[in-house]
Amino acid sequence: MSRRNPFEEIEQMFERMNQQLGQFNDMPVPGTQQLSVDLADRDDAFEVTADLPGYDREDIDLSVADRTLRITAERDESTEEGEGNYLRRERRRHSVSRTLSLPEDVEEEEANATYTNGVLTVTLPKATDLDDSRSINID
């Protein structure tokens, strides 16, 4: 007679909850605009393309961890008229953000990005070795 392992049941419950809550990973961060992206599967890598017109390269922040790519961009804009005691002075802050769940593990250290003419392209090579184990020598 085999005994039930309550920890396995709890683990399965958490996996189901993560799958169900995973649909909310692509929701925008409050106070920001949603950034539209294209995700392409290029056999050995994923390619993410995003239009970010008007942003400088320094305004964009990218990070990837645990099959999740995060793109954020912020810029300040100001308009001034007159001199001295100004009659009009306006300031705006534009920000966009997107968190994207990747369908497979990627080589985080090998990821690279280019930003040309307002188009951000991120290349994320797929992980080739999913086995994190290593061989142990016997003395």
UniProtKB/TrEMBL annotation:
Gene3D superfamilies the record matches: 2.60.40.790
Superkingdom of origin organism: Archaea
Transmembrane is among the record's keywords: no
Region (Disordered): 73-111
Pfam families noted in UniProt: HSP20
Keywords on record: Stress response
CDD domains per record: ACD_sHsps-like
InterPro entries attached to this UniProt entry: A-crystallin/Hsp20_dom (IPR002068), HSP20-like_chaperone (IPR008978), Small_HSP (IPR031107)
All residue ranges annotated as the SHSP domain in the record: 28-139
Sequence similarity: Belongs to the small heat shock protein (HSP20) family.
Record's protein name: Heat shock protein Hsp20
Organism: Halococcus saccharolyticus DSM 5350
